[in-house]
């Protein structure tokens, strides 16, 4: 997030953040009922102090979450006590990995149908082709409601999609969204040691699963 601080109270707050808290601050979110108790925990990445006339240009990013415990001051700006929130690691990631695999396989099936639909529509324009297009569309829609659809085999490695592609099917868009989510994810994660039951099995970690969930949406 890019910020431009020019009011004196905010420049003083920035100095306090840098000098007393190593550039770490929480972004308060205010609703109709008051300040939301869970706040984004942010860190100053870069800044450029242009003096009193132009103010300070700040670049900050979210690095975690925190719980607001108490408000200690409200004038000239709100300060309070926050405690960092850490997510609890599940005992194992077998179920999330199974769901992620099903999501990837479904996307691959949809993309295969999209490619076939595109190829058929470009090949001929007769009535039989139009009927096949309709049947493929119906089959494409049915996949979204069929959780027992057959799997297509081992998951493909996710890779960045090139910009010169003329046709972006669902799998291309999914891969691009996954890479984008993974690249911009700066949230800290805890990684557990694989158990004996899952040792040797290619399992996705928490960060990968999070990126996959964002890409699916």
Describe the sheet with the most strands. Answer: 5 strands, antiparallel
**Distance separating the two termini:** 23 Å
Shape: elongated
Succession of helices and strands? EHEEEEEEHHHH
**Rg for CA atoms:** 25 Å
Summed over residues and divided by their number, the pLDDT gives a mean of 77
Portion of residues in helices?
A: 40-55%
Number of separate domains: 2
Q: Based on helices, strands and strand pairing, what is the structural class?
A: alpha+beta
How would you sum up this structure, described in words?
The chain is α+β, with helices and mostly antiparallel strands and 217 residues long. The protein folds into 2 domains: 2-85, Archaeosine Trna-guanine Transglycosylase, Chain: A, domain 4 (Roll), CATH 2.30.130; 94-216, no CATH class. 40% of the residues lie in helices and 22% in strands. The chain has 5 helices and 7 strands. It has helices at residues 8-21, 94-123, 127-143, 170-184, 206-216; strands at 2-5, 24-26, 30-31, 34-35, 38-49, 56-73, 79-85. Strands 1, 2, 5, 6 and 7 form a 5-stranded antiparallel beta sheet that branches. A two-stranded antiparallel ribbon has the order 3-4. The chain is elongated. The protein starts with a strand and ends with a helix. Mean pLDDT is 77; it is low at 147-165.
């Amino acid at each position: 997030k890019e910020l431009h601080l020019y009011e004196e109270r905010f420049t003083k707050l920035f100095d306090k953040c840098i000098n007393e808290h190593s550039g770490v601050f929480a972004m308060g979110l205010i609703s109709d009922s008051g300040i939301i108790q869970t706040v984004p925990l942010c860190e100053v990445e870069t800044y450029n102090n242009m003096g009193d006339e132009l103010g300070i240009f700040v670049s900050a990013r979210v690095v975690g979450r925190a719980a607001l415990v108490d408000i200690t001051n409200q004038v000239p700006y709100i300060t309070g006590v926050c405690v960092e929130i850490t997510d609890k690691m599940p005992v194992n990631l077998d179920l999330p990995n199974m769901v992620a695999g099903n999501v990837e396989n479904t996307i691959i099936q949809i993309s295969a149908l999209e490619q076939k639909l595109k190829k058929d529509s470009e090949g001929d324009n007769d009535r039989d082709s139009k009927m096949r297009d309709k049947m493929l569309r119906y089959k494409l829609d049915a996949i979204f409601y069929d959780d027992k659809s057959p799997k297509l085999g081992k998951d493909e490695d996710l890779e960045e999609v090139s910009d010169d592609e003329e046709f972006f099917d669902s799998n291309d868009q999914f891969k691009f969204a996954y890479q984008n989510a993974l690249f911009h994810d700066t949230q800290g994660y805890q990684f557990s040691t694989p158990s004996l039951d899952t040792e040797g099995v290619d399992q996705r970690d928490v960060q990968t699963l999070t990126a996959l969930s964002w890409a699916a949406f």
